[in-house]
Amino acid sequence: MATPATQLDRTFAALSDPTRRALLARLTERDTVSVSELAQPFSMSLPAVMKHLDVLSDAGLISRTKTGRTVAVQLTAGPMEEAMQWLHRYQQFWMQQLDRLARFIEDETCSPNQASPSNATSTESPNKSLPHGPTRKK
Question: What is the CATH number of domain 4-79?
Answer without folding.
Answer: 1.10.10.10
